[in-house]
């Protein structure tokens, strides 16, 4: 069980949304609101990408640059599934938070656009970008780790410079290396 990871998985996300909704009530400074929300979004991105994804669902993704300067996306999934009831509940919380928050930021985008509050548009786009980047990474980890789903994901997700074959090979080689050496 990872109650602290579950708490922080939702805390930064919900805090950014609540701050966005009610910031004008507490502060008249646009810059203070903007920086606070952007800081919460950044903390959420970092904690989900580096901590909660690994602890709650056993998935991890990152980008690495090789010696030639080429970018390689690496997507990992643990091979041993956990079956504890508390872990299933934590996994549901993880995925629900990961899916619902980008939808909320998309609603904010349209409401900001139609209400002509264009100064908030950059912040909302940053929220959408950070939230969907994590969603994309973890969906790719989840589906890319399964051999049968790898063909399906290649139709829906396009990586910028790296073909899917190379991405899967790097990920599988990295996992096998970790399994052989016993490191993580």
Automatic annotation (TrEMBL):
Pfam families: DUF846. GO terms for cellular component: Golgi membrane. Coiled coil: none annotated. It is a multi-pass membrane protein. One of its GO terms (biological process) is vesicle-mediated transport. Its main location: membrane. The chain crosses the membrane at residues 26-46, 93-114, 120-139. Belongs to the TVP23 family. This is Golgi apparatus membrane protein TVP23 homolog. The lineage of its organism: Eukaryota, Metazoa, Chordata, Craniata, Vertebrata. The gene is Tvp23a.
């Amino acid at each position: 069980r990872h109650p602290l990871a579950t708490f922080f998985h939702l805390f930064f996300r919900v805090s950014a949304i609540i701050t966005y909704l009610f910031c004008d009530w507490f502060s008249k400074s646009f810059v203070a609101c903007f920086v606070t929300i952007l800081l919460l979004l950044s903390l959420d991105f970092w904690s989900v990408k580096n901590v909660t994804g690994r602890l709650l669902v056993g998935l991890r993704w990152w980008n690495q640059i090789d010696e030639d300067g080429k970018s390689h996306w690496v997507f990992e999934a643990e091979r041993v599934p956990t079956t504890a009831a508390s872990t299933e509940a934590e996994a549901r919380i993880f995925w629900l938070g990961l899916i619902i928050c980008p939808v909320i930021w998309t609603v904010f985008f349209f409401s900001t656009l139609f209400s002509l509050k264009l100064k908030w548009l950059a912040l909302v786009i940053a929220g959408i970008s950070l939230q969907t980047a994590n969603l994309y990474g973890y969906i790719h980890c989840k589906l890319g780790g399964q051999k049968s789903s790898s063909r399906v994901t290649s139709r829906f997700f396009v990586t910028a410079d790296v073909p899917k074959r190379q991405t899967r090979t790097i990920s599988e080689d990295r996992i096998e290396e970790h399994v052989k050496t016993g490191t993580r």
